Structures
1.
Amino acid sequence: MSWNPALDPDCPTGDAVDSIETLIIPRTRDLGGFEVRRALPAPRRQMVGPFIFFDQMGPAEFLPSRGMDVRPHPHIGLATISYLFRGRMHHRDSLGTDIWIEPGAVNWMVSGHGITHSERTDDETQNDPMPFFGIQTWVALPKDHEDRPASFEHAPVDALPLMEGEGKSVRLILGTAYGETAPVKTPSEMFYADAVLEPGAKLPLPDNHEDRGTYVVEGEVSIAGDRHEAGQMMVFRPGDKVSMTAGPGGARVMLLGGETLDGPRHIWWNFVASSKERIEEAKEAWRREDWQTGRFHLPAGDDQEFIPLPER
């Protein structure tokens, strides 16, 4: 278990204890008019279940020909999912995948031993400003999946379980929750869901997962009498029954968690690994720029540029 009250000498006891183990206020970065809020990894929390990276992208409005333009870059030891509320994003990778990521759909890219991909909003037919808003997450892979071949899987929005009733709508993106199972196969036990709540609606968290958290995307929720606004992530103590209530304006929240991994992970740039040696091997492979016979290959159709290895 990740919770250890001895970490905090002032940890409350008895009736003063509530269900929230960690409250995370994301760090905010302005990328030239495009705001990103990073909740994971955080100083007090590297992961929630297997989720090791959590970024809120936007909300923003992209002018024609001036949007997201992330050049090809590598990953190891993780799986990515970019989940959009508004807008669209062009994904290309070294497996030959060429697909537009659109709101509500799942695009699950497993890097394993190594993959390269790009993310752009390069639609030449776009003539009007495009709203853009979404969440990008990384899931760290178990040790026995770190060297697996890379893969990519797409699930359209209408293939995802949707649970509605009592003022709430919950779409299951990954894993299992509330008696439903999402179609994409994951390497470890987890859950990831998008929940929209009407004012005053109550939503319990799944209680069959070891590690659980929630991120408030829009509106506000109250948990155990405390109010939490948009842009906050709450991580809960294992085993506790937790429920949230939407504020007077309703709320949209992301639910996430699952089984804790088989040990801590090292993170450097776009690499996640169970050992520093794996990170160093990946750094050297990208530094060589051997796109023909090396570990990494550039995406077909987007192979004229790439992001160099950082100096740090």
Note: The longest strand covers residues 243-258.
2.
Amino acid sequence: MKWGAAVNLKKLIGLLEKSPIEIRYHIPEGCDPEKIELESLVCDSRKAGPGIIFAATKGEHHDAHDFIPSAVAAGSPAILCEREVESEAPRIITPDVRSAMGCVCALLHGEPAKKMTMIALTGTNGKTTSAFMTQAILQRAGIKCGLIGTVLYDDGAKTEEAEHTTPEGADLQNLLARMVENGCKACVMETSSHSLVQGRVSGIAYDRAGFTNLTPEHLDFHKTMENYFLAKKRLFDGCMRNNWQASVNIDDQYGRRLRGELGKRAITYSMIDEGADFFASIANITLEGLDIEIKLPGSAKKQQIKLPVLGAYNVSNALQALSLAWSIGISAQSALEALQNMPQVPGRLERYKIDGSGSCVIDFAHSPDGLEKVLSALRPICAKRLCVVFGAGGDRDRSKRPVMGEIASRLADYVVITSDNPRSEEPASITAEIERGVREHDTPFAVRVDRREAIYYGLDMIEDGDMLVIAGRGPETQQILKDGPIPLVDKEIMEDWCALRGKKVL
């Protein structure tokens, strides 16, 4: 690790005593805190070692206090915990480790977030695409920018598959420290409602924030839409700094509410209200992308660009990225050029033409709103049949399953119901709940519980002019089953099918 000079335990305790975190500590007799050098913090005992504090978090299924002995045996010289435990290592005790460990880890790394322009994106849908767009704009403008989101983490030197939309506080700070070490001057990150409620972003303050929209999702956790909105609003109420601004989608009812509460700090964007600071309309749609016209602040002339993505909602995502970049001083010309030349976002309306077999689109849509938007976006450019393969996640909100089934059968010409990530549930019980919604219409459908079989079935069905949507998992590389995860990538399944059938991806 090269994250700067190590901090000794005595200095760390002194910094924590000046912070808002409530702590007490226990130093074993004969232990000199000035001689205990600390470099980082982890909440996974398997990553514990010399110089690394072990944070004992409590989750739904495990209490990491049980792993303190193994962390100490691995060499961890200090423990962050919520209660007194028997251990030879010094303990820093705080009421809520999960929310405190981000601040502790930030102090160990010299508060890396203070060394970058921090941009947070929140909302139900669109965060990932907007994050990729924002990063592309900043990079083209010469600002090296890290990225943290649902698909991947980019620390400025390498990328890795994401485990969570927003990592745990310790992992997040370690990632930010790597970004600073690798020369990043900015970081754009998706900030989930879970992370805001659980305190994962403690120790970070943001310069800019974006709000995409709010639709029913995660209600198994938040219970009501009002709670969900208030969770998102924590970002704007308590996580911003300096002369901050927020880019807000006023086409969304919750966005309009947020704009009213933020006042002059809100930069607005819209595809409906031409009075917004940033406004865009679609002139033409093809399989290659969207021809759009954009109105910028202070300019009467509209800018025309070709956006190489599908879906009208991605115009909103582009407006958010554009407005955020504009707010930190990036020229409109540079930003628009970046948008026109951006690569496909993994698993977000990722489109492929298959020789002699129509088109295939892979998308992460796993909620009713997401699925409806994807199918509605593709319908106008689908020459013949629009087919969809999808499922629903296990151990998650069950009420959305028949709703998604109804949406699929209403908007598609053929539906293939399959597994998503069933987790501890029986896949057949999940598909049965989806099927109830599908049967609300007369659309033909099939059930293929095995996801590979379902995708092969859908691809065998399509012909020139048809389009197959593979929805729900996007770029995920593992399918989570009752017995644990197995390797499974929707794009690779499509490529395997092409190889077996002698087809080429164009």
Note: The mean pLDDT is 95.
3.
Amino acid sequence: MIRRFFRHIKEGFFGVGRHLGMALSSASAVTITLIIIGIFIVITLNLYEVTKSIEGSISIVATIKDEYDSDHLAIQERIDKIDGVESIIYHTKDQEFDYYLDTMGDDSLREFYESYRDDNPFKAAFIIYTDDGNKIESIKTRLDDMIEIDSTSDGGSNTYVLVGVLDHVRVVGGILVVALIILAMYLIYNTIKITIASRSDEIWIMRNVGAKNGYVRAPFLVEGIIIGFLGSVIPMLAAVFGYIYLYQSVSGRLFGAFVLIEPHPFVLYVAGLLLAIGIVVGFVGSYISVFKYLRLKR
């Protein structure tokens, strides 16, 4: 009898140890996964800002027929109503001529072309910026249909290829983040499933004495949330201090060209997002595992 008593104590002690070890192992796996998720979130959001900035710098140049130049304000109002147009800058004929001269690196060439100012061959033009690179082609088509517009230029097929590449970069980044979230959920799901299996006798006893499903599920759901919370602590700290350190180290510019998002309040948003992902993933992963187990045991 005494041996049986000590055996129960020993089994209980090692059972708790195994359970704690599995929980810590799962939390560690979630930590690693959330760190990777955090890295991809930071990269994806910065890429989003960079790609939107690049798209925002893409413009359409629409020259105006000389006979309609006096009505440029009315024309600008019509263009501004086109879907996707974010801003418009009007350049007079002289401004277009000056812009062309500024592209000349040789002073002698500038002096030569300056002699043509009185007979300025350039036309007044609108510089049109869009709020979405995917709308450039449709805006250009609408401009070409306007009788007041002499010609339009948007960079041609190279512009459309660039916009397509930027879209794919954003999509791929988002897919990777979602895939990693699913992976973290799967890790917690497996941990809770193993935990439930190891406590099958306890669950069976509770169900036989009339315990409701909610009472049986609650501890495992709480455990999943705790695992998700613990797994998110280190990634949150890494996201906050790691990004601030990176930003300060490169003076806010990556490779000297790409401007990074300022740390505050960006790092707080990322940390909050990681915490939310950890808790939600822990809850969902444990809920799926518990629901599936209890359903099979009915």
Note: Confidence is low (pLDDT under 50) at residues 1-17.
4.
Amino acid sequence: MKNSTPRTPSPWISVVPLAVLTLLLYVVIRCFGGDAINGGSQIALLSAASVCAMLSIGIYGCRWTVLEEAIVDNIRASASAIIILLLIGAIAGSWMVSGVVPTMICYGLEILHPSFFLVATCLICAGVALMTGSSWTTITTIGVALMGIGRAMGFPEGWIAGAIISGAYFGDKLSLLSDTTVLASSTVGVEVFTHIRYMLYTTVPSMLIALTVFTIAGLSLDHGSGAHAQLYADTLRATFRITPWLLLVPLATGILIARKLPALVTLFAAVVMACIAMIAAQPELIAKVAGIERLDFLSGFKGVLMTCFGPTALETGNVQLDELVATRGMAGMLNTVWLIVCAMCFGGVMTGSGMLRSLTGIFLRLVRRTFSAVASTVGAGLFFNLCTADQYISIILSGRLFKELYAARGLEARLLSRSVEDSATVCSVLIPWNSCGMTQATVLGVSTFVYMPYCIFNIASPLMSLLVAALGWRIRRKS
């Protein structure tokens, strides 16, 4: 009689699906470049998941029902993120056609000096994320507007997106309202204020490095002339009805976030408010979207819905500006949703087969001293982001994996929670198939591979965590 209990996979076998995924993604990216998200990456993830399933069933006797249940659990956990992503698409369309984003761009072009635009962008996003506790919401709202301002000033897209993401993730890490901050501290069992104060020793130096780089880049990059930005502002004013009243929409959205309302409720309210503002301020544009000359109730209803769920293309008379104000709505998010589902399938199969647990055992064997403990934690955070494609799962797995080991080595729990945040949280946005990387690339309209080198804070954070551990700065052992 065959033993019904599956054997634990060997680390050498467990690494095969990950190697297959890496190889396939390399080929896909070489073939499709920034368009890899449109189908190639999804096929790579499903192919690697198939390899994992065949190995676990054929060699170790794992039942398909176990793998299927793990996949379903992973997809169920990502359902909220998928709905949020669709609402973000609706916000992108409604905030643009209503004139909210164009108004923010016009006023931003008047206030921000091009030489200090990048560093100002980073600081603005950091402040908004610190108050709201959400890097995703910050990037989706103020980040989209700053992206438009930077493009109008002539900055490379990678630099603009890097400054936005760096600031947003810095503020998110240090905010009491941040779900990742609370999750990292609670998983390890550290009081949230203690966790945030201890993060300052790695987070602030990393942010100072980022601000220095963005300041130098802003002063040295050729970002065009002020006349070019003024032309964009004049064209926007000729296309949209620009009024300070439209700023009430992002202001009200910020208030809802500050009141800690659920993300789904806040984002849906932001869409509704933008639709009301659209009807009041831009009736002519609604008629253009609906493809009619005279607006009535049914055609207006149709135009408003089209801005939320479908692509919109408004002619401004400037080709570059036409690309800036074009939106894809909820339909534009479907490739990202498809990618998230495929990524959850791969993460579920790796978890259900036990291969992920087998690979994490390697990290545990590497821990001997303080530096090796921190280095293993940082490496595990990056590894889980690669395998599970989700920062929340990465935070939980990293924290649970090393919690008892840190206690056995006499290391403080706050060191573990900080190391988890310095890797699993901030590096998730650098991985193209991670839910964070996919979302920000879709929202900002910039490929992950394009903005990755310019996310200075996100790159510096894990390195700073290793440096502080090597120096032993503010690291104490328990008796």
Note: The chain has a mean pLDDT of 83.
